[in-house]
Structure formats: structure tokens, C-alpha cells
Design a protein that fits this description.
Length: 181
């Protein structure tokens, strides 16, 4: 019993950190924007209202080849794709794909991590070069950004080109691992 209690006690801070990427961010109260999970919210607040999507190089030094696509709009709390309307999601995917092609030609990939593993409250999409050999048999084929489905149950997704179409891989949480660091 003591081992079980110890295991739970050690795991609890990690579970809290992930599930509580604790977004109390309020741009009207700068002190609420200082926490690490709010760093992308701070960046969004620095951007002009137009264009509605902006890009940042990933600040993680272990991911020098990654970029992020982010909506400028800051919503209350930890945001996700399902908080955006279809037009906003299409604009995000379209802009992210254009940036990915600019950076990586046709070897690009986009990744959106599921809610269980996100550590930032501001919604963002990872842009990078797709690693070779990561293709699985679990994907849907879509013609373009407007057809990219929403992930279910808080899961993430990853996307890459396949000829003139896109493969959208659903049902995973940690998705950015398919991209070159």
C-alpha cells in the first residue's frame, strides 16, 4: 500500500502540470500572463489583429527546425481546435500548410497535440519536416484544409501531403513526434 501511495504522490505533480496547463490568462491582468503555460498567449497579445494567423519559431532549443502557427485571437482558458469555428480552422490550416510548403517543399508535416499532453494554453500547430517512415495505415484522405476533421475526445492529429491530397492521422495525443526536431 505504501508503494502505491508513493507512486501516486510522485505522479501527481506531472499529471497536474499537464492537465492543468492552468490557463488563467487574462490580457487585462498582466500578472496572469506570466506563467509558462501562458507564454504563447503573451506572444499572441503582441501581434497585430491582422493577419489572424501568425508564426513563431519554436523556442525550444531541442527543436531548432520547428515553427508554430497560432491564431491571433486570444480566448479565455486553455483553447483547442474545437473552440474555433470552421472558417477559423480552415484559415489556420491553410496558412500553416502555406508556411510548411515554403519551409519544406512537399516534405512537410503539421502536428496538433492532444489535450492530455499540451503544456501551453494558447492553441497552436507545429510545423516541420515529416520524418521518413512514420506513415501509418490509420488516416483519412482529404482534398484540402476545409475538409480536415476535428479530432475527437481531446486527441490530436497530424497531417502531411500525399500527391494532390492530404493524409490526416487522427486518434493520437502526442503528435509532434512525427516531425524533425
Amino acid at each position: 500500500m505504501l508503494k502505491l501511495i508513493l507512486a501516486v504522490a510522485l505522479a501527481l505533480p506531472q499529471i497536474t502540470r499537464i492537465d492543468d496547463a492552468g490557463c488563467g490568462c487574462d490580457p487585462k491582468r498582466p500578472e496572469t500572463m506570466e506563467a509558462r503555460p501562458c507564454s504563447l498567449c503573451r506572444e499572441a497579445e503582441k501581434q497585430p489583429d491582422d493577419p489572424p494567423i501568425f508564426f513563431l519559431r519554436d523556442a525550444n532549443p531541442r527543436k531548432p527546425n520547428r515553427w508554430l502557427a497560432l491564431p491571433r485571437a486570444h480566448r479565455d482558458g486553455k483553447t483547442a481546435l474545437h473552440d474555433m469555428n470552421p472558417a477559423e480552422r480552415t484559415a489556420l490550416w491553410t496558412a500553416a500548410i502555406e508556411k510548411a510548403r515554403e519551409l519544406w517543399g512537399e516534405e512537410w508535416g503539421l502536428a496538433y497535440n492532444g489535450e492530455k499532453v499540451r503544456t501551453q494554453c494558447h492553441m497552436h500547430v507545429h510545423i516541420g519536416r515529416l520524418l521518413k517512415g512514420v506513415e501509418t495505415e490509420r488516416f483519412v484522405v482529404v482534398k484540402g484544409p476545409a475538409e480536415i476533421p476535428l479530432p475527437e475526445d481531446g486527441a490530436g492529429l497530424w497531417i502531411h501531403p500525399h500527391g494532390k491530397r492530404l493524409h490526416v492521422h487522427l486518434g493520437e495525443h502526442l503528435c509532434e513526434t512525427v516531425l524533425l526536431r
